[in-house]
Amino acid sequence: MSERSERPADAASDRPGVDNFVRALGVVTQAKRGFAVGLLVAVATYYFFVVASGGSPYSTAYLVALAAVLAFTVGLLATFAFTAGAAYRLYRRLE
């Protein structure tokens, strides 16, 4: 059995540089913000296109599934944008 397979999953990372970079960019915070934006966009889209327009011929389960896909997709894109912005600000500060 190799040494790698015996290490617990929560052991210190073998790549501390990556951990430091992720921490410096605040990826966890950016992900929280990004998925909050995604959720807000999905709720607003559902409201404007289903509730405010008087209903939909499609089933509620189908529309909720589409809203979940929209929330996830927008959340990922917003997270990427927020993290890219943090990387640019970090680059400008370190320059």
Mean pLDDT: 87
Number of H/I helices: 4
Radius of gyration: 20 Å
The description of the largest β-sheet is:
none
Keywords: Membrane, Transmembrane, Transmembrane helix
InterPro entries: DUF7536
Pfam family, one: DUF7536
Transmembrane segments: 35-55, 61-88
Describe the protein's architecture and organization.
Keywords: Membrane, Transmembrane, Transmembrane helix. The chain has 4 helices and no strands. It is an all-alpha fold. It has a domain of 65 residues. Helix 3 runs antiparallel to helix 4. The mean pLDDT is 87.
Give a short synopsis of this structure.
This protein is mainly α and 95 residues long. It has helices at residues 3-6, 16-25, 27-51, 60-94. The chain has a domain at 28-92.
SSE blueprint:
Blueprint: H1 3-6, H2 16-25, H3 27-51, H4 60-94
What keywords describe this structure?
mainly alpha; DUF7536; transmembrane; membrane; transmembrane helix; 95 residues; 0% strand
